[in-house]
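Exam revision sheet. Question 4 asks you to relate a sequence to its structure. Input first:
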Amino acid sequence: MAALIECVPNFSEGNDLQIIKQITDAIESVEGVKLLNVDPGKATNRTVVTFVGNPDAVVEAAFRGIQKAGEVIDMSKHKGEHPRMGATDVCPFIPISGISMEETARYAQQLAKKVGNELQIPVYLYEAAQANKERSNLSVIRAGEYEGFFKKIKLPEWKPDEGPAEMDAKRGATVIGARDFLVAYNINLNTTSTRRANSVAFDVREAGRVMREGNPITGKIITNPDGSPKSTPGSLKCVKAIGWYIQEYGICQISMNLTNISVTPVHIAFDEVCKKATERGLRVTGSELVGLIPLHALLDAGKYFLKKQQRSVGVSEDELIKIAVKSLGLDELASFNPRERIIEYLLEDKTAKPLINMNLTAFVNETASESPAPGGGSISAYMGSLGAALTTMVANLSSHKKGWDEQWETFSNWAEKGQYYKDALLNLVDEDTAAFNGIMAAFGLPKGTDEEKKARTAAIQAATRFAIEIPFKVMQLSYESMSVIKAMAETGNPNSASDAGVAALCARSAVMGAFMNVRINAGGYEDKAFVTDIIKKGYELEQKTKDLESEIVGIVNQKIGL
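Answer key, structure tokens:
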């Protein structure tokens, strides 16, 4: 797996789109990076940029972005709601795939050294890139902000890790580091009182609030034996939060950093703020995502809110996201396009699944064309997916059937299983065509020299094995989906019995059709032991499928009764 790093620099300009464009153009000038998102904030006067790429390209792109920001942003004139200390305020690296946090930290340190030496900007390392844990926290480093750093940078304990110990009046200083994926998330309140918003923030953030004698605002701070302030922790782990007023919207927000969404997911943070706000006479009206979010975070949120309604969670990915967006109010302040805000959607190769991204008419016409693919294997996978989709529909209808409320969770679980088989089989539609194309490509390899002949033969055999394994996987998944189909035929909404019957017919046809593909492709494979074994398993699976389909159709016909 190729190493992939995400970089999320925060630049101290959120209003002048031409300045922002100059910075992102500099980032995009590096080959090997992909710009995913640009999220400017007017009130914060700050833009969060997200891009990904191979480590070396990310280091160079980040360097060019920091260099350009220093040229086009003047910190001596900067005003904004968000804490800041430089034109490039913070530049974190996040490991995405094929690279460890330790390796990512070394690339962050490499960038810091390059910025310090070549640009002469003071640089502080943070999080995993900082060896000194007393100065690894971003808020601690940034305390005093731009205005206070002219004095702070002269203190021995705050000498920069790289670059000069001299605050640059125009460019400021910057913080570079490596960290886990962080979700920047703001929750909207129906108040203009920053003090009240901060009270809610202190209620929920992990650091909580400083303890005071008497008056909670003006009273003397209570200290620990070592002299540090004593605090009452908030209710949410791995959450940093402050309250602020956003003039652009005329409301206050709880601005949050969710540093580990496995510990505190977005939906839990939202509900907890709703609870604490209500206790203080406030209302949450919606929320706002800054930058990008992982797909699972919104899918988990969608399931969470559906379960609270005692509704089936076995619905499509798109539907789960829609529920999450509406429940969290992510579209209150601006439209929310999941295709532009979910990191997996921005990284996916849109050309990798051409068939399942077609509409029905286009898919049928492509199948009917003179091209040999998509052929019987892809159609078998599609039939299996349609069967799983039908039985999922029966499960969802049963979950919502009037008078069956106590069974909603049972049918929801069946619907989730149906969704799994539907999606897995749908993905095999393109996989089967890719397997066929792989064989054709292998046959097209040169065969002049002995080495070329050997390489061509090996490629043909490898492609042939793949073309056997894919339809066999279709057989397995289609047969397994029949456990859901049988359950829905037996216990599902009786008004949908015929749908369960059609699902069984689809599954049987998918198994039998896929097995034909297994057999025809196995004829050209030289590993006879493998062929003998998979053909034996295939016949057994085909017979079990036929028997189970007959049983399901019998149940359905008995329920139909005519």
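Marking note for examiners. The first strand starts at residue 4 and ends at 7.
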